Amino acid sequence: NSASAAGNGATEAMEVKGGGPDIAVGFRLATYKQGSVEVVSLSQLDWPEDVLPHIPPQMIKIGLHFEQFVRASGILPYSSLTDKGNWRNLMIRSAEADQLMVVVVIDPQGLGTERLSQVRADLELFFTEGAGKECNVTNLFIHPAPAKRTQGVPEPLPELLFGEPVLTEVLLNRKFSISPQAFFQVNSPGAEALYSCVGDIAGLEDKSTLVDVCCGTGTIGLCLADRVKKVIGVELIPEAVRDARKNAENNQVDNCSFYAGRAENILHDVLRDIDSKDIVAVVDPPRAGLHNKALSAIRNTLTIKRLVYVSCNANAAMKNFVDLSRAASKTCKGDPFLPVKIIPVDLFPHTKHFELVLLFERVPQETIDRFKDYTTTSGQTTTTSGQTASTTDTSSNRDDKQFFDT
Question: How much is the pTM?
Answer without folding.
Answer: 0.80
